[in-house]
Specification:
The protein contains three helices and twelve strands; from the N terminus they run βββββαβαβββββαβ. It has 246 residues and is mainly β.
């Protein structure tokens, strides 16, 4: 079925279209093509073998994703993103691509626990772990469903998900190497820098998915992403950490 999600996010106002076999029940697909709220992840997973296609169009970018429930506990997504006004103005390719970046990236999420056993679904995820690293982030998220109408998600993130109100990495207790995030800001597509996973400062994030009617949902989330690169190179404005969708 075709679902439309109207997004109100700090960086832009956009429209997300999702073609998927799932019903209007949870889970929903976020702006990155993975199970989640607006832009942030949740610990939900699709039915085994489910294949979804999504397209998100905003003022500064457009994302197209193919999402697949690879195994019952493993969800993956391939995403192709066009970022406008993302290259520095002195970039030699600017005259050809007019500041645009064409980015391919991969996400993967692993379900660690179920609500029936521990009181919430828990998942571990890697965002843009194989690609340029523009959106590179890692996270641990828990989602608890209340009846069939409300789901609450709460998590901790690293990388792009560790911008606002960040704090020292709690995993630094395990190894000093995790206290700072190594690696380049961006890399050539196809590269993997596993050494930087779950390293550097961390931030908390949260979201709520509320089914207010048979065909209507309201989603709110607190995002730690500061959109620093986007703010530097384009005219978008990040005025609030709250993202909302209807």
């Amino acid at each position: 079925m075709l679902r439309q999600k109207i997004l109100f996010i700090p960086a832009a106002v956009g429209l997300t279209l999702v073609w998927t076999g799932v019903s209007a029940e949870r889970p929903t697909i976020n702006d990155f093509g993975m199970p989640g709220v607006v832009e942030l992840p949740s610990a939900d997973r699709l039915p085994d073998g489910e294949l979804s296609f999504s397209s998100s169009i905003a003022l500064s970018s457009s994302r197209n994703a193919v999402t697949f429930q690879i195994f019952p506990r493993v969800t993956g997504a391939f995403r192709y993103t066009i970022l406008r006004d993302f290259q520095p103005r002195d970039n030699p390719l600017d005259s050809l691509f007019k500041g645009q970046v064409f980015d391919r990236s991969f996400d993967v999420q692993f379900a660690l626990a179920d609500q029936q056993r521990v009181g919430a679904d828990v998942a571990l995820g890697l965002r843009d772990f194989l690609g340029t690293g523009i959106f590179s982030a890692e996270y641990l998220v828990a989602t608890r469903s209340i009846d069939d109408t409300v789901a609450l998600s709460f998590g901790i993130g690293w990388g792009r998900l560790a911008g606002r109100n960040s704090f020292d990495n709690p995993l630094g207790l395990l190894s000093d190497s995790l206290e700072t995030r190594s690696g380049r800001e961006f890399r050539q597509g196809g590269g993997v820098e596993a050494a930087q996973w779950f390293s550097g400062d961390a931030s908390l994030f949260a979201g709520v998915d509320w089914k207010v009617g048979e065909r209507t949902r309201i989603q709110l989330e607190y995002s730690p992403d500061l959109y620093e690169r986007e703010l530097e190179l384009s005219e978008i404005d990040n005025t609030t950490p709250i993202n909302a969708a209807v």
